[in-house]
Amino acid sequence: MESLNLIKPELLTLTSEQMTALMPYFWMMAGACLAIIGSVLQSMQPKWVVFVLSIASAFLAMVSTWNTLGHPPILLFNGMMVVDSYTRFGNLLFIASGVLTSLGAFRYLDREKIHLPEFHILVLFAVMGMMLMISSLDLIVLFIAFEIMSLCVYLLVGFRRSDRKGNEASVKYFILGGAASAVMLYGAALLYGATGSLNLSEILQYAVVGNDLSIIFVMGAWLMVVGFLFKVATVPFHMWMPDVYEGAPTPVTGFMTTGLKAAAFATFIRVILSLGYGRGMIESLQAQMHDLIWVIAVVTMLLGNIIALTQKNLKRMLAYSSIAHTGYLMVGLAAGGMGAPDYSSVLVYLVSYAIMNMGAFLTLTLMSGPNDEGLMLNDLSGMSQRRPWISFAMAVFVFSLAGVPPTAGFIGKYLLFYQAVQSGETLLVVIAVLCSAISVYYYLRVLVYMYMKDPQEAVGDQRVSLWSKVAIAFMVVLTLEIGLIPSGWIEAAKAAISHL
Amino acid sequence: MSIIPGVEPWAVLSFAAIIFFIGLAGLVIRRNLLVVLMCIELMLNAVNLTFVSFSQIHQNLEGQMAVFFIIVVAAAESAVGLGLIIALFRTLRTLDTENLQLLKE
């Protein structure tokens, strides 16, 4: 048992660089814990205390991440965690999605009469889990972070406790998600059995050097990959997604499509790279894994887009469109397995997808009536005459989701497909472009209903909170900004993957 | 290196694998939500067994450390799961998965 000797005193203390690297995590943790205390104060309304605390701590975490963007990678806790530029890039995205969820949900929760302070606290803890997950270099840290995030999101999905749809969605998500984590964990156990270590860099060494990969390693690698494929919801592991997206409160659905999906995908890239994918994994396994991802990308894009055509409920339609977008991201992953792996385009796509989808769901939150009614296509008829600004914002997001220039969605798709062609994935890109052409039909149908149909009676509360206005305006500006001047974002993504 | 004297490592590992797949099969087949929750716990415990036996084979403590964390996470998961199931029972008055039909195409 020589590993006991590995515990050295210097590993039990933190240097000042390590403290600086950990500041965002401390801020989020402190904010969440203070918010729990604040939520039981009797003197003032707990929702305000918790809301202000969560926004403030997220803001501080964001500033401290931003200030360290250019710093070199820092290993923490005996190599169990790393704070590198990839982590920092992801952290900014996750914190932003958490803040926007809280902002967009404020009036919504009041309206649904479920404004319990727990909502903001759970969002904070979920963001914390995402931040830990993307920075983990150890399978156990990864699993714990994964569960911190998932458990919070299960609860957020079931936040409307007296609503049958919400309950059903949360239980379905919990059972399938629990099974997926168990499968992933079994994969981790097998990887540990094959390599004798839970550390990702040691697993990578084993995968690259060992020419005779044991059957245990191969099985473990597959189970890990299946667990992640479930979390990012690719076909055939997508069944839970439309149900959960429809049943969850609308701001939570927005949170799931942005933060959760980005976190799962970014961590997926880190893990699959450390299994040696595209980095000298043995030929046969590399080819198998590449082919599997290739096939999954095609099936996911086709199925997501085609089923989305038949959907009448906007939330369900966006759920299938989210599956389709996962397919496009898988194109990037398949391309990364060929030649020199370059995932910067995947990162740019994740960011632009997060921004436009967050915007779309914040706008949907405003459009929905009580109990999330009024999200059928018919309810949008003539929306442009009743609520011109909201319709305009929705139009921008829908154009971006469809990939029309000059929006973020166009730049994301362009970079992703360009890089895939460079890696020799021409056939895959042809299929992806055709699928994206199919998607234009159902995205533009939203616009047709909003702008070209006769107006209908208004549904629900027409007031818009200041928070939502700020958040949506910010998303519109960002969507157009990435579309018009993408160079800064591409540079940031390139810098982010440089240490990966 | 045998884990228990007279027992080959592959026997223990296969035992854990069988338990894991019993859990997975139960998750797919059983209709009662509480039993489904138990199946998830069964899968996690099979993983624990796997970790412990590999830890013994490799003679390092990482696997045993992992088990402690997994036990904690499994406890948190069943707490959350039971909470969600109770909330569902209050509105649905049943625990049969056949009745989860509200959200579909």
And the CATH topology of chain B?
Helix Hairpins
Helix/strand class of chain B: mainly alpha
Write down how many β-strands of chain A occur, each being a DSSP E stretch of 2 or more residues.
Answer: 2
Q: How would you spell out the order of helices and strands of chain B?
A: HHH
Largest interface: A-B, 45 and 44 residues
Count of discrete domains of chain A: 1
State which percent range the strand residues of chain A make up: under 5%
Largest sheet of chain A: 2 strands, antiparallel
Helix content of chain A: over 70%
Compute the average pLDDT of chain A: 88
Radius of gyration of chain B, taken over Cα atoms and rounded to an integer in Å: 17 Å
The count of β-strands of chain B is: 0
User: How much beta of chain B, percentage-wise?
Assistant: under 5%
Spatial separation of the terminal alpha carbons of chain B: 54 Å
Overall geometry of chain B comes to elongated
Notes on the protein architecture:
The complex is a heterodimer of chains A (500) and B (105). By secondary structure, chain A is an all-alpha fold. Chain A has one domain (15-497). Chain A is 73% helix and 1% strand. Chain A has 19 helices and two strands. In chain A, strands 1-2 form a two-stranded antiparallel ribbon. In chain A, strand 1 (74-76) and strand 2 form a beta hairpin. The longest helix of chain A has 32 residues, at 164-195. The radius of gyration of chain A is 22 Å and the shape is globular. Chain B has 105 residues and is an all-alpha fold. Chain B has a single domain (9-99), classed as Helix Hairpins, CATH 1.10.287. The radius of gyration of chain B is 17 Å and the shape is elongated. The chains are: A mainly alpha (500), B mainly alpha (105). Chain A binds chain B through residues 1-4, 139-140, 143-144, 147, 151, 154-155, 158, 161-165, 167-172, 174-175, 178-179, 181-183, 185-186, 188-190, 192-193, 196-198, 242-243, 246-247, and chain B through 13, 20, 23-24, 27, 33, 36-37, 40, 43-44, 46-47, 50-51, 54, 57-63, 65-66, 69-70, 73, 76-77, 80-81, 83-85, 87-88, 90-92, 100, 102-104.
